[in-house]
């Protein structure tokens, strides 16, 4: 699988016309044209992914692969961040034939990690055993751990879903920037490189094998990408403007799907946040009504102080007289 964000990404555009479209799509985030661009709010299912500025005249045959490339690139960054968190805690990946084995089993089978002495972190290592048994336990020192962790935070922030709430559009340059930051951190902490079987190195070299994994199911091949808007499939033979008109200052929600998966679920009439606010409002109203019902309770009428004739009986001295046989 060719991962998004690799050096081949720009070549994947195909024809010269496609290249022109991609240049036009990638530029607005840094130019003054952003106000004249259509903003796509890309979702996968009901989950927001990112915002993207595109031209209304963009060909959908080019737009769908571009959206898939950014979507897959974000997944790649997330996978790298997850593995690099483990790298900071437990060191490099063990050879496959040593993973999950106890020290006694490794000694009994006379197995040796040939890469342990080659791939030493800068500044030395501290031992922190990996209970899962995937990494060798020779973690970087505290200073180098902070280099990795800080870079992970910065890379995640670049492609985070929170960018949608902040109205920040994401493009392939931002995805590549996040990947370059992670690559740089690995080179700083491990100047001698990582073992060829380490998933971090495989991701950075675009050699990852995601077959049979949950991560592999999340990836949408560019050739299989399909965009939907307002319950309609956006036909690849048309332009975006054929569906949304000539209005270049609008935001639309598009959903990315794999071809053959059918139409995605329609957008709810109200957002999740609006639903929460409505439920909170009606809960408060219900509590207010309960309180009013309690205030309207007339059981106090049986109380002595509410008896209109109590004063008269007390004056006549018949206050505590009880009628009936004793």
UniProtKB/TrEMBL annotation:
<comment type="similarity">
    <text>Belongs to the CFAP298 family.</text>
</comment>
<dbReference type="GO" id="GO:0003352">
    <property type="term" value="P:regulation of cilium movement"/>
</dbReference>
<dbReference type="InterPro" id="IPR021298">
    <property type="entry name" value="CFAP298"/>
</dbReference>
<protein>
    <recommendedName>
        <fullName>CF298 protein</fullName>
    </recommendedName>
</protein>
<dbReference type="Pfam" id="PF11069">
    <property type="entry name" value="CFAP298"/>
</dbReference>
């Amino acid at each position: 699988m060719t991962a998004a964000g690799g050096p081949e990404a720009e070549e994947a555009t195909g024809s010269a016309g496609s290249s022109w479209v991609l240049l036009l799509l990638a530029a607005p985030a840094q130019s003054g044209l952003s106000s004249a661009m259509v903003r796509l709010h890309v979702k996968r299912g009901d989950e927001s992914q990112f915002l993207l500025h595109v031209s209304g005249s963009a060909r959908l045959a080019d737009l769908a692969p571009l959206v898939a490339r950014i979507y897959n690139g974000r997944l790649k960054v997330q996978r790298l961040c997850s593995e690099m968190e483990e790298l900071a805690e437990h060191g490099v990946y063990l050879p496959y034939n040593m993973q999950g084995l106890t020290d006694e089993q490794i000694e009994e089978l006379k197995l040796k990690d040939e890469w342990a002495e080659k791939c030493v972190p800068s500044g030395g290592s501290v031992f922190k055993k990996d209970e899962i048994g995937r990494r060798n336990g020779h973690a970087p020192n505290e200073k180098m751990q902070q280099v990795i962790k800080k870079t992970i935070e910065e890379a995640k922030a670049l492609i985070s879903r929170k960018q949608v709430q902040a109205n920040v559009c994401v493009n392939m340059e931002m995805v590549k920037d996040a990947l370059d930051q992670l690559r740089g951190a690995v080179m700083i902490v491990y100047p001698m490189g990582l073992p060829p079987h380490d998933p971090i190195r495989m991701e950075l070299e675009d050699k990852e094998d995601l077959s049979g994994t949950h991560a592999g199911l999340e990836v949408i091949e560019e050739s299989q990408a399909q965009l939907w808007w307002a319950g309609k499939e956006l036909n690849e033979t048309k332009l975006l403007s054929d569906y949304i008109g000539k209005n270049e200052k609008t935001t639309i929600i598009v959903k990315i799907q794999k071809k053959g998966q059918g139409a995605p679920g329609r957008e709810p009439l109200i957002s999740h946040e609006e639903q929460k606010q409505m439920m909170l409002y009606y809960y408060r109203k219900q509590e207010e009504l309960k309180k009013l019902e309690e205030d309207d309770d007339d059981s106090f009428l049986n109380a002595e102080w509410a008896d209109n004739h109590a004063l008269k009986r007390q004056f006549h001295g018949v206050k505590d007289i009880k009628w009936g046989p004793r």
